[in-house]
Amino acid sequence: MSDRPTGTAADYWRANVRLLLKLLVVWFVVSYLCGILLVDVLNAFSIGGYPLGYFFAQQGSIYVFLFLIFFYAWRMNKLDREFGVAEKE
């Protein structure tokens, strides 16, 4: 992989916004749909003795949010290298 930028600032921003929108959709689905609207459907299943809807509302969404943070950091580092704006190591 070369150190040359592969796109313009507009392309970089577009890729950043596209990533953010995808992650926000996941965040919405996990927190709002799984934790609030679909709780009755999810409560038919259980994890560790707790109903799945309760688990998503209390613990599962936190795990997903932590994953989203680490995924975003990893993916943005990759985008930074791709567009030639990465910090020097």
From TrEMBL:
Pfam families: DUF4212. Keywords: Membrane, Transmembrane, Transmembrane helix. The chain crosses the membrane at residues 20-42, 54-74. The keyword Transmembrane helix applies. The keyword Transferase does not apply. Residues 10-85 form the Sodium symporter small subunit domain. This is Membrane protein. It comes from Salinisphaera orenii MK-B5.
